[in-house]
Amino acid sequence: MEMQRFQRQTTALAMTTTMQAALRILQMNNLDLTDYLAQQALENPCLDLRPPKVTRLTGAQGADWDEIATLAAAPRSLYAHVAAQIETAFPGAEDRRIALAFAEGLEPSGWLGVPLAFVAQSCGVDEAEALAVLEHLQQFEPAGLFARDLAECLSLQAADQGLLTWEMQTLLANLPLLAAGKLADLASLCDATPDDIRAALAVIRSFDPKPGARFAAAPAPIHPPDLRVFWQDGGWVVELNRSTLPRLRLTGDDLPAPDAATRAYLVQARSEARFLLRAMERRQSTLLRTAMLLVQHQVAFLSHGARHIKPLSMDEVAAELALHPSTISRATASRLIETPRGTLPLQAFFSRAVGPDTGDEAQSQDALIALVAEIVAGEDKSRPLSDAAIQALAKAAGATLARRTVTKYREQLGILSSYDRKRSAGLAP
After folding, report:
1. Label partner for 40 (CA 20 to 30 A): which of 29, 100, 211, 235?
2. Does domain 359-424 have CATH number 1.10.10.60?
3. Start and end of every RNA polymerase sigma factor 54 core-binding domain (predicted)?
4. What end-to-end distance do the CA atoms of the chain give, in Å?
């Protein structure tokens, strides 16, 4: 067999250093961008940076107030505790970004307060990748953090102590029977005696159902919004929040250049400074165009609430703006927009379509979840609605839902079954 060598010319997309820097700038929120540009201005004499004004609170104690000592003495918050572990447990930037998104969804109890699907969508990853990060987070100390319900919280603590036997798993999977005191039924399920169940119950009672409560009840850091949307003169107006944006200016024309090496250095510095200015302009333009299109599609959502959000994907927005979907993902990731309905993640304007893909029959998953919550909120508390009854009321409201889908949405909302709601109200036998 004779070996031959051929030369072939092909076209391929290469990611240059400047392209990578531009994408990083696009993905930064205003606070991160300010820090990044401040560092660049320190290194580049042709950049003049005027950071946004920061309002500082002063202590009422006067000149003797020791702010540093106060910070050191302050109890550590749950978010700070988790963020410190994330920094060492996730060396990769992408996994760390997903982990921090989960951390921002932690409730004071230490449970995860947002659905897995929401974190996956907000980070632009599939649910399998988000689940892998969540399972790693669930190994953090203290055991039980990032649980999605009570059974998972207790299971994580049992596993941490090497007590998660098959019998213990069965017990934790049947907590309603345990709460009702049906030890004989549990003994039958676990192939054990009632005394064995009582012993296991004593172990379960030693676990902490709210492992996050031992930390200071400080909220997760709140970043100022990157954009604002408001009603003005009969229409919705979208604008950048320039109060948190740094002002960048090209300078250095009057810098002395006594020799060729200095002149070459200044030429390079001016080139890098001009690139940063152009990248900033592209970032602002892309962010504003994307937000304006999202608002245009979701006017009903802004005017009437989550029940009226329409199906909208990143691919659809990218096609309308003639951009790549990954650009839209970067432009909307970790972005906040101030609206009359509160400050929301920009990615809240996206919603997965369920059911038929064409025509007016397509339904928004977020709107359907909001409908289930609205129906349960309006029920007669003495006669809680079954999932079948919720399905029927949703159909009457024009939404097509399977009963198992109602159950899934109800569980995502943290709403108990009709029997458990009745029992928690003291109405069930």
Report:
1. 100
2. yes
3. 69-251
4. 85
